[in-house]
Amino acid sequence: MKRLPLLTAVVALVAALLPSLPAQLLGLALAGATVLLAEPRSFPTRAVLHSVLLAATAAGATTLAVAWSMGPQRGAHVGLTVFLRLLALLLVTTVASRRLDADDLHLLAARLHLPRLGLALGLALNSLPHLAEAGRDAWIALAVRSRRRRPRLRHLPRLAEVLLAHTARIAEEATAAAALRGHSQLFRPLLGATPVPPVVAVVGRSGTGKTPLLLRCATVLAERGYPLYGFVQPALSENGQKVGFEVLDLRTGRRALLARRVGLEHGQHGTQFQFEREGFALARAAVEAGPPRGLLVVDELGPVELRGGGHWPAVHRALSRRAPAVVVIGLRRHLLAAFLAELGAEAVTVVDVGMGDAAEAAVLQAVTAAFSSGVELPPGCTRGNRTELE
Amino acid sequence: MRDIRPWTYAALFGSLWGAVELSLGTVLSAARIPFAGLLMAAVGVLCLVTARRLYPAVGMSLLMGVVAAFLKVFSLGGFVIGPMTGILAEATVVELAMTATGSTAAGAITGGALALATAPLQQLLWVLVVVGGEGAAGWARVLSRVAALFGWRGSATLQLVLAFTGAAALAGAVAGAFSWRVAGRVTRRLRGGT
């Protein structure tokens, strides 16, 4: 909306809500002026008629009710007030809903120094068609499964569940997309101006062997004399079930409990685990006690670190103070893009744990290559700058 | 909020809530279905609780409310201030409840109860704003007279409002518990990758 219609709309609303008949009349007049100013070429006749009808109905009902309980004179007075007030409100909100668009709100948010809010609103608008499509698909799928034209009422919770899960997946994709673009307004890299060394990212799903791979690589690299430090997080098992994690300091061999599984209901940070201070303290000591220009191993960084918690403060300090020559990180594949953007890393080698035996050789070669450039990587392993990888 | 995820989650779940308000809410409102406001409030609680259980960041429920209220601007029918304030009020009470309880099931139940209880109160507030104090008093007298015809003496309006608000709060607590359960199933579905 332009400035003059916006001004008349605001004054109309204020005047209409005042408890005086002349002010309410002025409010209605200004609301009419707002309609004419906002839409001078195409007068919204139908919308205005609809508003008049609605206001007249509400005013009529109120007149009758008040006249019955408090007398006809009072009824007429209150009915007129309701008519004037409601009509002014309806006209202003009708014009606002017709004239206001996403760009206006985006600009308004920017002017109010709330650019993130503007972007969130834009994202919400853009995702509406996707959500509508997902809703339609889920509806059809449920109908097909239940072999009926329409799903039954008892199927609605399942429909809600599918839609909500789908929405969460789109949110994750949007997060990754914003991170990949390094969206300056939605996203502030955690490290600021700290120079980031070459990164070797070992990726894979949870439980696919990232930690054993990193442990094997760390052993070989330490034997070869690399100035290695950092930590890995081996899983703790009981009767074949993963019951927690511990932290293993790669330089000293010390271990400490980091997390134990307590279930989704009692877990911390939205996980199934309860975390122990001792584990974080050992991890902190492990990454902060390394030699300058060394080889830092961090296993692993997860959603908690992405939110700036967990091991992140210690890793952040180590990167800025110890200035490692190379960083080897274990993380889940779907978090890769977000972490690369968080780190602001440019030289990145990604090794997928799914490469099997070749993965170990790939990590070793990537580390060697990072320390002394010019070594070729094996097939299946990607190396390049962040933009290329994305 | 420093992290990007609360913004994207709030945008997407707010968008879902807004989409339901725009489609189902408009249809229910146009068809003058009784208790449509309560039904839409329950849908809002489902979206709010699920998003909060998936990503328990403080302020996210409020942001979702802002997004859904923003989308309500594009609703058919024009008069959207009432529903918009209703959405914001609902998001605010769920935010308070979830923040106070650390995003637990108790927060979902309390938030649900408060959210649905605010729906009739918020409508009452709007009646008060539109018809004014005198008009509202007139309507209250009508209610008392009608109640007296059925042998219900005393402050019938207050009792009716309290009874309706209490029933709405009870329904809201059930909606909150149900939403927490659905949110758990959504979490498992996402973790399981299905």
What does this structure look like?
The complex is a heterodimer of chains A (390) and B (194). Chain A has 390 residues and is an alpha/beta fold. Chain A has helices spanning 3-17, 21-38, 45-70, 72-99, 102-111, 115-145, 156-180, 210-223, 277-288, 303-306, 312-321, 336-343, 357-371, 386-389, and strands at 199-203, 228-232, 235-238, 241-249, 255-261, 273-275, 295-299, 326-331, 347-352, 382-385. By secondary structure, chain B is an all-alpha fold. Chain B starts with a helix and ends with a helix. At the A-B interface, helix 3, helix 4, helix 6 and helix 7 of A face helix 1, helix 2, helix 3, helix 5 and helix 6 of B.
Distance between the termini of chain A: 39 Å
Low-confidence stretches of chain A: 184-193, 374-381, 383-390
Oligomeric state as shown: heterodimer
Radius of gyration of chain A (CA) equals 31 Å
How many individual β-strands of chain B? 0
Structural class label of chain B:
mainly alpha
| SSE topology string of chain B | HHHHHH
Rounded to the nearest angstrom, the distance between the terminal CA atoms of chain B is: 30 Å
Q: Which spans of chain B of ≥5 residues are poorly predicted at pLDDT below 50?
A: none
Strand and helix order of chain A: HHHHHHHEHEEEEEHEHHEHEHEH
> What percent of residues of chain B adopt helix (DSSP H or I)?
over 70%
Largest sheet of chain A: 10 strands, mixed
